[in-house]
């Protein structure tokens, strides 16, 4: 028994000395002192020892156990100290080094302009409504009084997925969806991304954004349209801004008009920004065509309405005096920081 105890003691001392991780040290503890450990098994064999020898042998086992536990604790303390020192050395901060710069993003000019437009119209009681970018030909063209053979479809050539499904060229389809719900009156704007088969240049892109508005109610007149858009222009470009309406043609409105605003650069006197005219074209508008109302299930004898549409990029280009639309899509942080 004494010889076996000495063997266990010598082996454990060697294992503890060579141990270099706390996990391995715990394995040694379990293998010696655990329920199925070697020292525990030795204690269980005490029944085979002569009764007169048991006190002496028991004392030897307890002394060995105490010594092993003490060595385990000492080794554990040394390993933890070494681990802590290594961690502290690895985590030392050299305050003389330049700090890592974490650059935050910046709101895009389009986002800033859109938030301002939404704030203006929500303040006038309008609702912001979104719709699908992948649309049916019916909602993008036919329901807006643009049949298959209408020349306006050439002006808004787009990307077709099938013969009936396309990428929308305008957000007017969202207006049709809202009219078909039959929840009147309607006061809404529909901002969103649209697509056309345009060449990329300083003022065109195959992908851009529109904001279209719609009001449907009883007794709506062109005067309501003019008053609404005049208030919008003043809120967006300044209180001194004046508006001018020129006759135009849109298939889904009758009568239709283009709206100009006084140049906010020269106050309408004429400059290079407005090409000497004193006016800047800003959007298209008109009274909703009676046939458009009928196709959406609204009685044109009882309800009338007006609609308007403006390019979001056009607002950003004018408001922030950007001369090339392509700058908006290059993601150059030096450019974006200016707004």
TrEMBL record:
Annotated localization: Cytoplasm
UniProt-annotated binding residues for Mg(2+): 254
GO MF entries: ATP binding; catalytic activity, acting on a protein; magnesium ion binding; phenylalanine-tRNA ligase activity; transferase activity; tRNA binding
Reactions the enzyme catalyzes: tRNA(Phe) + L-phenylalanine + ATP = L-phenylalanyl-tRNA(Phe) + AMP + diphosphate + H(+)
Residues annotated as domain Aminoacyl-transfer RNA synthetases class-II family profile: 117-338
Alphabetical keyword list: Aminoacyl-tRNA synthetase, ATP-binding, Coiled coil, Cytoplasm, Ligase, Magnesium, Metal-binding, Nucleotide-binding, Protein biosynthesis
Q: Name one Pfam family in it.
A: Phe_tRNA-synt_N
- What HAMAP family does the annotation carry? Phe_tRNA_synth_alpha1
Q: How does it assemble?
A: Tetramer of two alpha and two beta subunits.
Q: What is this protein called?
A: Phenylalanine--tRNA ligase alpha subunit
Source organism per entry reads Acetatifactor muris
Lineage start: Bacteria, Bacillati, Bacillota, Clostridia, Lachnospirales
């Amino acid at each position: 028994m004494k010889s076996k105890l000495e063997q266990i003691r010598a082996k454990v001392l060697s294992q503890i000395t060579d141990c270099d991780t706390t996990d391995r040290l715990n394995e040694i503890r379990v293998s010696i002192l655990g329920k199925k450990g070697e020292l525990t098994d030795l204690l269980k064999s005490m029944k085979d020892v002569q009764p007169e020898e048991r006190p002496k042998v028991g004392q030897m086992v307890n002394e060995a156990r105490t010594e092993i536990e003490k060595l385990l604790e000492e080794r554990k303390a040394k390993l933890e100290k070494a681990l802590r020192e290594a961690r502290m050395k690895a985590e030392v901060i050299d305050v003389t080094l330049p700090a890592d710069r974490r650059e935050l993003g910046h709101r895009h000019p389009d986002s800033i302009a859109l938030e301002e437009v939404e704030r203006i119209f929500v303040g006038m009681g309008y609702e912001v409504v979104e719709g699908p970018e992948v649309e049916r030909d019916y909602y993008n063209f036919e329901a807006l009084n643009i049949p298959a053979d209408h020349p306006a479809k050439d002006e808004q050539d787009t990307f077709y997925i099938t013969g009936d499904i396309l990428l929308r060229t305008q957000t007017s389809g969202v207006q049709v969806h809202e009219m078909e719900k039959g929840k009147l009156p309607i006061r809404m704007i529909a901002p969103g991304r649209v697509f056309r088969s345009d060449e990329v240049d300083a003022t065109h892109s195959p992908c851009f954004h529109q904001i279209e508005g719609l009001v449907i109610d009883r007794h709506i007149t062109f005067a309501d349209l003019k008053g609404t858009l005049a208030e919008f222009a003043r809120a967006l470009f300044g209180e001194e801004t004046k508006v001018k309406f020129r006759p135009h043609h849109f298939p889904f409105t009758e009568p239709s008009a283009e709206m100009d605003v006084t140049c906010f650069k020269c106050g309408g006197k004429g400059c290079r920004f407005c090409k000497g005219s004193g006016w800047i074209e800003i959007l298209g508008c008109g009274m909703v065509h009676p046939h458009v109302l009928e196709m959406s299930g609204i009685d044109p004898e009882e309800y009338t309405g007006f609609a308007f549409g403006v390019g979001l990029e056009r607002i950003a280009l004018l408001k922030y005096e950007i001369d090339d639309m392509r700058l908006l899509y290059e993601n150059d942080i030096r450019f974006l920081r200016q707004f």
